[in-house]
Amino acid sequence: MNPLEVSAAQNRWSTDPAAEKVCLYGGLLLCAMLLPPRTGAPLVLLATAVATLGLARVRPRLFVLALLGPAVFIAIGSLPIAVSLRGGPHLEPGGVEIAVNTALRSIAASAATIGLAMTTSMADLLDLARRAGMPAALCHVADLTFRLVGILVRSARTAREAVTLRLGLRDPRGAIVVIGAQSALIFVRATGRARAMSEAMSLRAEPGMTAVLTADRPVRPARLAVIAAALTVVAVAAVASWRAWQGV
């Protein structure tokens, strides 16, 4: 099991209904997308941290490491919005503001998504999706994709450990060659294992007919009311702070 799966199975909210957690983190995701980014994104990040680290008791180091990769990718990807290369490198008029707003929204939305992944198992999410009416074929594809990603991660970890033991990363030039060969090996090996796994799952049942074993956990109206109140507080605080900042 990868660290995300372990966290989803061992956190304080692991036995809570998946629908409640989807409402919470899905609401925070919508807040990150719709609220003013300069005030809404920090509040969404704060609410996500309180829920994930304080209430669900997810390991802070794991949460930070999981968010660090997307945050760096988003920051680098926002640079072309602010900088133009036509006629020489220069800042686009209004580009910095758009880049900052885009980065804030994206990082806050990523934090909410990671919080859901760290508190809810894939089996619970698939069961909830089936109950909500998602076609069985789409659930099968999601399940298969999740398993393929796990195979790819395990293959990459094993190959990297083997390369490290062989001292293949001693100098930059050798590291580039080794990483290129390692990537090709991982792709071929993961593709073969994925094909075997897909055939095995097809032999067990028709695509979309495989079931997941989950406990029946009814949604608690009181908890949904608390979630709705918390999301309302985040939205009102973000809008009020934005209007005060703009002097409206």
- Strand fraction: under 5%
Structure class = mainly alpha
* Morphology call: globular
Distance between the termini: 51 Å
Order of neighbouring strands in the sheet with most strands: 1-2
Number of strands: 2
Helix fraction by DSSP (H/I, runs of at least 4):
over 70%
Radius of gyration: 22 Å
Helix tally equals 9
Q: What is the string of SSEs from the N terminus onward?
A: HHHHEEHHHHH
Low-pLDDT ranges: none
Sketch the major β-sheet: 2 strands, antiparallel
Mean pLDDT: 84
Pfam family, one: CbiQ
Main location: membrane
Subcellular location: Membrane
Keywords: Membrane, Transmembrane, Transmembrane helix
Report on this model:
- The chain has helices at residues 3-10, 18-34, 37-55, 60-82, 95-119, 122-131, 136-165, 172-204, 221-246, and strands at residues 83-84, 90-91.
- With 248 residues, it is mainly alpha-helical.
- The protein has a two-stranded antiparallel sheet with strand order 1-2.
- A hairpin with a 5-residue loop joins strand 1 and strand 2.
- The longest helix has 33 residues, at 172-204.
- The radius of gyration is 22 Å and the shape is globular.
Which properties best describe this structure?
single chain, 248 residues, mainly alpha, two-stranded antiparallel sheet, 9 helices, 77% helix, ABC/ECF_trnsptr_transmembrane
